[in-house]
Design a protein that fits this description.
Length: 129
């Protein structure tokens, strides 16, 4: 595979690791009601990283000619991504009670795990025997 592919793949995997780490960290701060959650870098860095994650994903899709609504696993990943974003904003911002936020945070982590498993198996229903 091409050098552009390897670099994009490494960027994709690196930004995935960072987005997960930042989401877990912010979840702990949310549970502790820490003011760190409002720190300037915390409101900027995750968005920058997530933009790179999305851009690397779109570039990989174009480069490998696999597209959402064409390739089932990518459709599933994209729908899961939307769900992950919605759950994430409930967990870190919009949830009204602590319970709602924690439930949304846990659900978001499950959806994230689903996305990783779908990406690795290239199968949206990898859990079906
Ligand atoms: C949080 C969001 C995401 C996660 C957790 C994630 C996870 C992964 C992982 C783990 C892989 C590597 C699979 C492997 O080769 O073993 C991968 C590859 C890939 N991702 Fe993502 N991804 C995300 C977002 C996206 C988005 C938004 C797109 C594009 C719309 C995308 C497109 C791709 C493509 C096309 C590949 C495979 C390239 C190839 O065939 O080697 N990803 N993703």
């Amino acid at each position: 595979m091409s050098m552009a592919y390897s670099l994009l793949k490494q960027l994709h995997l690196g930004t995935i690791a960072l987005t997960l780490a930042l989401f877990v960290l912010r979840g702990f701060w949310m549970m502790q009601k820490s003011p760190q959650l409002q720190a300037r870098w915390v409101r900027i860095v995750p968005h920058l990283n997530d933009s790179l994650l999305l851009a690397s994903g779109i570039s990989l899709a174009v480069l490998t000619r696999q597209y959402p609504l064409v390739n089932g696993w990518l459709s599933a990943k994209l729908f899961a991504l939307i769900l992950y974003i919605v759950l994430g904003t409930i967990a870190l911002k919009r949830g009204r009670t602590g319970g709602q936020r924690i439930a949304a945070w846990l659900a978001a982590l499950l959806v994230f795990g689903y996305m990783v498993a779908v990406a690795i198996t290239r199968d949206p229903a990898f859990f079906v025997l």
